[in-house]
Design brief:
The protein is of the alpha/beta class. It contains 5 helices and 14 strands. The protein is globular, with a radius of gyration of 17 Å.
Length: 261
């Protein structure tokens, strides 16, 4: 691709209602939803979409190359889209809440959730990730994050690189964020986009889990000024087109990152 062409990305977040601890049923349900989505470059699913989020999910942890990974590769090829989701992976004697970015070209990139959710007990069963991840794909630099990570702005700080560019263009967040704290989800997703001069795509689930917590979605695509471009308020998904040219122009016109602390 010529260097003067800055590609757009169509991103879709699916506000899926997860069936508790039923990986095969969840994969089948998502597979039925995928044909109903707009043609997209990136498709986000909620956090721990194969099991739901909570105690017990670690009992269904998969090996790194388990059935969900194989299924994700097949869906990425079929729909020509990067598939983004988390599920629980066992590696050695530890379990990780691992976000996967699977490209239609067959590449797999991963990020292990760094901030495991102490109030729910996740921190007692899931090991913390230690590495920040940025994935370059189709001219974009993508930064993955998982749910509770959204509360930690220092962890998600979009730092300057040696050539003066910001490290990432698009923040991708997979979540199980309950409706009792919905205002925080909405606010934090917009705040992370504003302060990091980036687009943000947040995917949240729907439904009720065995603890009684309810989830109402709230998946949203946010631009670099904090403006919601699309939400799932009237559908089971949110979709929008992100423009890299617009992002670069905004950063040049308003180079707030040059005054980062």
């Amino acid at each position: 691709m010529p260097s003067d062409i800055q590609p757009d990305l169509v991103v879709t977040a699916v506000s899926y209602s997860i069936q508790w601890l039923q990986p095969e049923a969840n994969r089948q349900a998502v597979e039925q939803l995928l044909p109903t989505l707009p043609k997209s470059d990136i498709i986000l699913l909620p956090e721990t979409f194969t099991t739901g989020f909570g105690l017990g999910m670690e009992k269904l942890a998969e090996p790194p190359s388990g059935p969900t990974l194989q299924w994700m590769h097949a869906m990425a090829r079929q729909y020509g889209a990067m598939m983004v989701a988390t599920w629980i992976v066992r590696q050695g004697d530890q379990c990780f809440n691992r976000l996967h970015l699977i490209t239609p070209e067959g590449d797999c990139h991963t990020y292990d959730k760094a901030h495991t959710f102490r109030p729910s007990g996740e921190s007692t069963i899931i090991a913390r990730g230690r590495q920040r991840t940025v994935v370059e794909w189709r001219g974009w630099r993508l930064r993955p994050a998982v749910c509770y990570d959204l509360r930690f702005p220092t962890w998600l700080r979009n730092s300057n690189t040696p050539n003066g560019r910001l490290a990432y263009d698009l923040l991708l967040v997979c979540a199980n964020w309950p409706s009792s704290r919905q205002a925080a989800w909405d606010t934090l997703l917009r705040a992370r986009a504003i302060e990091n001069l980036c687009y943000a795509a947040g995917c949240n689930c729907r439904g009720t889990d065995p603890s009684g917590a309810t989830y109402i979605g709230g998946s949203a695509l946010i631009d670099h000024k904090g403006t919601p471009l699309a939400t799932d308020s009237n559908s089971h998904y949110a979709t929008a087109t992100f423009h890299l040219h617009d992002l670069h122009h905004f950063r040049q016109r308003w180079p707030f990152h040059l005054d980062f602390d």
